Amino acid sequence: MDDERTAAPEVMTAAGRVRGSWRGGSAAFLGIPFAEPPIGTRRFAAPQPKGHWPGVLDATAYGPTPQRQALSATTLIPEPSVPGESTLNVNVFTPNPERPTDTGLPVLVWIHGGGFVAGSPASPWYDGRSFNRDGVVTVTVSYRLGFDGFGWIEGAPQNRGVLDWLLALRWVQDNIAAFGGDPSRVTIAGQSAGGAAVLTLLGMPAAQGLFSGAWSLSGLVPGITAVAAQRYAVRLAAAAGVTADRAGFASLEETELLAHQDALAAGGDGEGRSPLDEALSPARDLVTEGLRLGPVIDGELVPTPTLDAYRAGVGSDVPLVLGATDDEFSLLVHGAREPLDAVSGSDALAALGLAGPTLDAYLAAHADVATSDLVGRYVTDRLFRSATLEVLAARAGARSWLYRFAWPSPAFGDAVHCLDVPFWFDCLDSERVAQVAGPTPPQALADEIHGAAVGFVADGDPGWPLWSEPQRPTRVFDTPSVIESDGYADTRSLLE
Fold first, then answer.
1. How many Cα neighbours within 13 Å face the side chain of 87?
2. Which terminus of the chain has a smaller tally of CB atoms within 10 A, N or C?
């Protein structure tokens, strides 16, 4: 019986023994280092596997996080920062420690989001308790963020955050059997930047064989070129007054580098801009400039653009589920409805660079929509929903499933970015969920999408038809949920 378990669970990993804690029917092992602390000479280096430790490592509290900022009251997902130097850790949640079997349980590896500059694996939303209840071992991983993880640095390996993902996945291959998991049945999943990480790994030759399934929630398709990354590095170095190389950036304390990074992200003060320009500024920055930091096409670790890799067949043997919420970035315009609704949708979208027949087709597909809602939907379509269609086209013939999360939160009136996460993890009673999903989010919807995730991780099938032409079946998670034909039809005009 669970309540008869008095001794803390212990597991032997390749680097030493770890002691976790029981939580009812499962156990948690938190803050297990998979790499040496990325400090000193290791700061801008490839991650070094964690060496052996003596005795038993206490794994009852989350380890230090690469995210350094204090948790913001406006952050949708509660992702706390934990101070300390040993920031490259995994957290393992398992229903079956100490009793590994020959077959083992399916494994979910979660990569958090945060635009590659923020986020934390210590979120209560990412607790694997519900997946454990359903027979899935769950692992959450950390990785270096911002310029330390993804900035272009001459004289250092590029894509250090990506290298962190790879080492964490290798740690899972080497150690998860000891926690009751099956290393041959590993599904990677993530949301937002985490979803983009999934899509990146799926198209990387170096990542093949480290996982057998992939689920991308609201994932972008990263495409930062080496030239763009180098230009950003030069700008950051100039702002900091250092040389744009390893020695120059290493001369800056982590807090100094973060301050300059944040200042560049903030841009100008907006002085002299019209109310419309001010209202459109966040959307325009995303649409025209995209991400400044993230996986870079470096010609080595990420040798080609992700979509090109898919077209060449990389990852085609790995089943993929992908989708987005209906109103990912409508939050960008929630505080600017008045100046946006004072102009036509045509003028607002033209200011975002949409023109010609594509503009006409998009307006026709969204007739009678207020301008503020139209701008939010366009950013969602441009960055997220169109990316899903491009991925499906590039993976033609590979096993893929498409969905939409369409349930509108009563807290926002839309199916906003991050809203689907507590449903996917089935943690509707967790901290801050009511702020995002309202006081009474529908448990039946969580049962559906969490059940689809469990089905995919365990059996390779989320429970609705595979994507195929010309039907284009799309699972629409809502109350009630349905299966639609061509559920992203109104997005398609941006790609034709």
1. 24
2. N
Q: Both tokens of residue 419?
A: 């809203």
Residue 112 annotated as catalytic: no
Show the tokens assigned to 335.
Answer: 């505080």
Domains and CATH numbers, the chain: 1-222+295-336+381-496 (3.40.50.1820)
Per DSSP, 49 falls in state B
Reported as a single tens digit per residue, the pLDDT across 318-366 is 999 999 999 988 877 777 778 888 888 888 888 888 888 888 888 888 8
Catalytic, out of 328, 386, 448, 481: 328
DSSP 168: H
Active site residue 192: yes
Q: Is there a catalytic annotation at residue 334?
A: no
Integer Cα distance of 456 and 320 in angstroms: 9
Two tokens, residue 492: 């398609």
Counting every residue written for the chain, the total comes to 496
Give the angle 46-307-451 at the CA atoms, nearest 5°: 85
Which residue out of 112, 260, 417, 450 is catalytically annotated? 417
Catalytic residue from among 192, 330, 372, 386: 192
Tokens of 201: 């790994």
Strand partners, 31: none
Q: Measure the CA–CA gap between 429 and 49, rounded to whole angstroms.
A: 36
For residue range 270-324, what is the model confidence (pLDDT) as tens digits? 555 666 777 777 777 777 777 889 999 999 999 999 999 999 999 999 999 999 9
Where b means 16+ CB within 10 Å and e means fewer, 245-265 reads eeebbbebeeeebbebbeebe
Give CA–CA dist 64/91, Å, rounded: 12
266 contacts: CB under 8 Å, gap ≥ 6 = none
| 84-88: Cβ within 8 A, 24+ apart | 85/37, 85/39, 86/33, 86/36, 86/37, 87/37, 87/38, 87/63, 87/142, 87/144, 88/33, 88/34, 88/35, 88/36, 88/37, 88/38, 88/47, 88/142, 88/143, 88/144, 88/164, 88/167, 88/168
- 284: helix, strand or coil: helix
Question: What is the rounded distance in angstroms from the CA atom of residue 115 to the CA atom of residue 133?
Answer: 30
Report the first-to-last Cα separation within the chain, whole angstroms: 59
H/E run at residue 483: strand 482-485
- Lowest mean pLDDT across 54-68, 190-204, 324-338: 324-338
Contact 386, 377 (CB under 8 A): no
